[in-house]
Amino acid sequence: MRQLAVFILALLLAPWSVAGSGYVGSTRCVACHQAEAEAWRGSHHELAMAVAATDKVLGDFNDATFTAHGVTSRFYRKDGSYFVRTDGPDGKLQDYRIKYTFGWTPLQQYLIELPNGHVQALGIAWDSRPAAVGGQRWFHLYPNEPMDHRHPQHWTARSQTWNHQCAECHSTNLQKNYDLAADRYRTTWSEINVACEACHGAGGKHADWAALPAAKRPAGDKGLTVSLAAAATTTWAFDPVSGKPRPSTPASAAAQVEACARCHSRRGPIWSDDGGGRPLGNSHRLALLEEQLYFADGQIKDEVFEYASYTQSRMHAAGVACTNCHEPHSLKLRAEGNALCASCHPAARYDTPAHHHHPAGSPGASCTSCHMPQRAYMVHDWRADHSIRVPRPDLSVRLGTPNACAGCHAQQGHEWAARALSRWYPESRMRGPHFAEAFHAAATGAADGAARLLAVASDPQQPAIVRGSAASRLAGLGAVPPTPELQALLADRQPLVRAASLRFLEVADARTRFEQGWSSLRDSERTVRLEAVRVLAPLLRERLPAAQREELLRGVAEYEASLQVNADLPESHVSQGLLALSMGDGEQAEQAYRTALRLDARFVPAYVNLADLYRLQQREGEGEHLLREGIDRITFDADLRHTLGLNLIRQQRRGEALQWLRQAAEAESANAHYSYVYALALQGSGDGAGALHILRQAKSQHPGNRDVLFALATISRDQKDMVRARAYADELLERFPGDRQAKALRETLRER
Fold first, then answer.
1. Is the confidence at residue 245, as pLDDT, over 50?
2. Orientation of helix 722-735 relative to helix 740-750, angle to 10°
3. How many CB atoms lie within 10 A of CB 538?
């Protein structure tokens, strides 16, 4: 009955396609907005995607060849079309027609349509920069990654499928139209590129309004789906004390910034019928400042685009909109060089050696060199960090974070740069406490790491993205704030904080989950509601009153409907499996994991989660077979080897297990848990000295890891090295003073 009820509710809530509902096309817009259209032509938005044709293809298809990863690809023309001969999904050379161009500069990619409507982005791109700076050549987007047709980043892999990876942000009114049963796309769009309605929403009602005689047009309502007028009408005045500008209405930029964020952020879609103009969290889930994406101080590391960086900035807090710096249609900067910043920050005060301490006109005198350092993505696509921060080489010294000074002064070192800034700005408040210190403390296992994260998460002066990230990291430590602090976080005015704080309930008992998390099922923001469902779903295994059960089932239906938005992604089906398992439905969980593997036989989390389900069901033999299948299919993956090692230990085959655990630990030294498990397995096989060697290596890289320290103390004790055992126990308790097991261990060691 539960499955039937959820199915019916999912149908009612499903994000139905809105193809054709009010989209009129840019041609209709041009009639009234000629200046905007003229600015848009030739922009990155206008050239975001195109049918491969002579005036759009930049690459050399004159029988050119390029060799990468042992494969020589040939680019040529035939019968007016563009082709490439390269390795296909089976590793064999085949000829493929280039169907679309993707992007313009500094590189252009090429899209190939494979069977069932899967459009794939070729891994070889054209460097469209001038030859004088190294351009006008073919290059591989993953030059340093060992690559063959089995690799998860190979151009034929699901991770390179345009329909779900890129399409939403490069075309207008994109409808994925995916059929899960057939694994088929019939993807459509209103316009192939980023046209007017991509930002302004469907224009039908506005066009109807414009067609009315002026006297008959309704006052105040122009029929716009997404109104961006507030930011455009904001007035600015200069504060007489600080000399800095202040907007008339600081909140006016929010709608525009979030409209841009739908594409200019690291995020994933969770709903497709929001219609635009609503908060980002109703249609997309934003990535937080996760360790693999950002440095501890929030600077960009992986490819994260601009939004989450910008929301960390003082510019964002002051109400500065994207269009204050960027012309919205041509996308060009409103002024060149320091003149852009001087439109708000008086040049007499800031564009002078007295401020930047570099010769005028030199690279160091550029505002962006110091405050918006760049990193290269896709080999040579340099992008500026939009957190617009003051360089902090003092943090670099203590935490290892990058800083803009090192871009020009790498040889002098961080300490040299820190001393220079200290001389130039001896009383600068910009060198005060920073959230990076809390993030770093928690990551390195410092004794006060959890307390510092809680302080950041609870600080209303910190940006929302920082506070939500602090709450998420704190939950990841397994630490739960005291009840008053937790209640405050769950009721915070920022959705990012509310959603992240729900993670604390993952380790709570059923009663606490119900009492603390239930009201979040009715949150105004969809991301918060979905997170609430995820942590509350296990309550369906308990005795709930009928009204609460039905309310939670409605939430489950919304969660499952959100997963259907990404039914073409194996990740979505793994999430479906985890949800089903949390509700006690192992059969549905297995089916979901199997679906993920049907879609992508190289998707590691599906193997790992399905093998874990088999562990719970005491089907270890099937789990072993499954994991070996994955190892054979995928070039190399440490997770699969680690999981297989654990499987073999449970089957009492410790000798076989050791080789797999060793391979995982050696391949992923950044994962302390792999080293810890391998060391325990060595000890269990009688090699205590080998175990200690592995653990000491792990401790040098992860000095504050609780499990590593505990194992070092206990194994040293078992090896009769009481001096080191006590020292490790003391260090453990110093870092984790509230740990009862650590206290008990130290007491027993003191008695010996």
1. yes
2. 150
3. 16
From residue 328, alpha-carbon distances to 19, 125, 192, 206 in Å are 25, 27, 19, 19
Bridging pattern class, strands 71-78 and 49-51 = unpaired
Integer Cα distance of 137 and 418 in angstroms: 40
Return the closest-CA partner of residue 390 out of 344, 357, 349, 421: 421
Please answer whether residues 729 and 439 qualify as being in contact, where contact means their C-beta atoms are separated by less than 8 angstroms. no
- Mean pLDDT throughout 476-503? 94
Band (pLDDT 50/70/90 cuts) for residue 274 is low
Long-range contacts of 696-704 (CB under 8 A, 24+ apart): 697/669, 698/669, 698/672, 701/669, 701/670, 701/672, 702/444, 702/445, 702/672, 703/444, 703/445, 704/444, 704/445, 704/446, 704/449, 704/735
Residue 96 φ then ψ, to 5°? -130, 140
Tokens of 85: 């001969």
Of 7-16, 20-29, 76-85, 639-648, least confident by mean pLDDT is: 7-16
Q: How far is CA 483 from the centre of its chain?
A: 30
pLDDT digits (tens, 9 = 90+) for 325-368: 999 999 999 999 999 999 889 899 999 999 999 999 999 999 99
**Strand residue runs (E) in 162-291:** 178-179, 184-185, 236-238, 245-247, 267-269, 284-286
Tokens of 323: 């269009």
Q: What is the mean pLDDT of the chain?
A: 92
| Tally of CB atoms within 10 A around 556 | 23
Q: How far is CA 658 from the centre of its chain?
A: 34
- For the chain, percent of residues with pLDDT exceeding 90: 83
Residue 750, token pair as written in the block: 């003191």
* End-to-end C-alpha distance for the chain, whole angstroms: 60
What is the C-alpha separation between 233 and 249, in angstroms, rounded?
10
Q: DSSP character for 86?
A: E
DSSP 8-state assignment for residue 46: T
Look up residue 723 and give its DSSP letter.
H
Tens digit of pLDDT for each residue in 143-157? 998 889 988 899 999
Measured CA to CA, the distance from residue 147 to residue 69 in angstroms comes to 6
> How far apart are alpha carbons 355 and 371 in whole angstroms?
13
Q: What pTM was estimated for this model as a whole?
A: 0.92
